[in-house]
Amino acid sequence: MDDLDRALARLAGAPAPAALEGIEDQVLRRIGSRPAVRGAGLGIGVITAAALGIGIVGAELPATASPVVSLAPLGGASPLAPSALLIGEP
After folding, report:
1. Range of the domain at 24
2. Going by C-beta distance under 8 Å and a sequence separation of 6 or more, which residues neighbour residue 57?
3. Where exactly are the transmembrane stretches of this chain (predicted)?
4. Could you tell me if residue 13 is inside a domain?
5. Are 69 and 80 in contact (CB under 8 A)?
6. Is-contact 90 79, C-beta < 8 A?
7. How many other C-beta atoms can be found within 10 angstroms of the C-beta atom of residue 3?
């Protein structure tokens, strides 16, 4: 047995501290004395509705039209080739 096993065995055999007597009652009394939060659900609902509205409006807005780009591998130089992108020429 190593030191940790001996220490845990000694701790398991030790009596519980007197300060822990009745701690369950104290904890439950303190939990019961706290006021319940009632307005949190409304705030989350408003934030959710606002995010949903922004998403719907953003999806319906027209996007700017981009020029059609040919990506044919054998049809000339591709405008998306690294060399064309580095130079900045279409």
Report:
1. 20-56
2. none
3. 39-59
4. no
5. yes
6. yes
7. 7
